[in-house]
Amino acid sequence: MNSGHDNLIAGWKTPADWQALRTRLLAAAAGAWHEAFTAFFETRLNLRYLHPIKVLQDNGTFQGEGFSILAIQCSLVEFLESAAQGKNYRFLRRGETLARYEYTSSQDVFIAFLRDRAPFSATFNRTSAQDFYVGVRCGLLHEARTKNGWRIWAKGPVGIVANVADRIVYRDNFQDALLKYIMGYGERLPVEPALQQAFIRKFDNLCT
Prior knowledge:
208 residues; mainly alpha; 3-stranded mixed sheet; 7 helices; 58% helix; disordered N terminus
């Protein structure tokens, strides 16, 4: 039996709520894009990612919770970049091809975020972003460990998310940078048509 909670996309918001807002977005209704960010995008991130990370930070013992924090952060990175591009992941079976706004390589999306999105772009280029993807993202999500000499520290110099030369990632600084990016995204969304179109493609997919 359908409990009514089977497809909640942002807190208590449902696909029907998204369709109602989508109509207002396309009609350029006043305040609609602010609502899209706060009620759908930000709420989804807060409840599923950011609040759980804060709980781990506030109750940590510096004995290993950084691995859980970074694992959640790495999952979030791919969502943020795919939302900015308006692309959706698809697992390709033999003989299948991707549609225009689909991707099958998480690596490309992940690297693009670190390399191109401020404030991460101040630290990473393509080479160091790929090294991070392999050593941290894939290490954590596939083997519950970091690889290739990468280490997780709680904090580093202000504004520095990682020391790529020594392969150290500062998980609290990384979190601060994610929050800064999300805030900037929220400021851009009401005024950038390409970002708006990408947002609609992403949430249409989330509601299917």
